[in-house]
Specification:
The protein is an alpha/beta fold. The chain is about 35% helix and about 15% strand.
Length: about 180
């Protein structure tokens, strides 16, 4: 095998490190996107029995967004294996205890039918904020695009930019908001 072919072969099976920002993202829609990279589904060499997935670093998992009233109505089930060991936890309670757990459970459940799911999850690194170890950040070569753009808050817009926004209604000078 020539050196060029050997390099191509090594590059084909190499594990790439990706980073994903979970700010304002739906964890269940993001889970299907992250699963593609963890399992290597986007690679041409993918096969269900082939372990060709990549590493994914997820930052800002404490800032995820659930739709509607799912914070109050979504329930997570856990059983310890002992008699009377069943517990049901609401999403907001689970998120306040561990801000990484909802996203981790969403990714785990999205990988149905994956026989190597437990080993694949070891390549998922979730952090509640942007404090990622430096040795992991050195490996990152790709950024996964967010599914939903993060909106800009009004207090973050500069006054010069606010003046450029066209006004729909011109209020009188003596108008008072109540």
């Amino acid at each position: 095998m020539s050196l060029v072919r050997r390099g191509q072969h090594w590059g084909t099976f190499a594990r790439i490190w990706h980073i994903f920002d979970a700010t304002w993202q739906d964890p269940f829609k993001s889970a299907h996107w992250i699963k593609q990279y963890l399992m290597g589904l986007y690679k041409p060499i993918y096969h269900p029995t082939n372990d060709c997935g990549d590493h994914v670093i997820v930052v800002n998992s404490k800032d995820i967004a659930l739709r509607g009233d799912e914070w109050q109505k979504r329930v997570y089930y856990h059983h310890t294996g002992y008699i009377g060991g069943a517990t049901w936890t609401l999403a907001w309670e689970l998120h306040s205890k561990d801000p990484t757990m909802i996203l981790k459970k969403a990714v785990y459940s999205s990988m149905t039918g994956n026989l190597q799911r437990r080993h694949t999850m070891q390549r998922l690194h979730i952090f509640p904020d942007e404090n990622v170890p430096e040795d992991m950040l050195k490996n990152v070569t790709n950024q996964i695009k967010q599914l939903k753009p993060v909106p800009i808050r009004l207090h973050e817009i500069l006054p010069e930019e606010k003046e450029k926004i066209p006004q729909l209604i011109k209020y009188p000078v003596d108008y008072q908001l109540q």
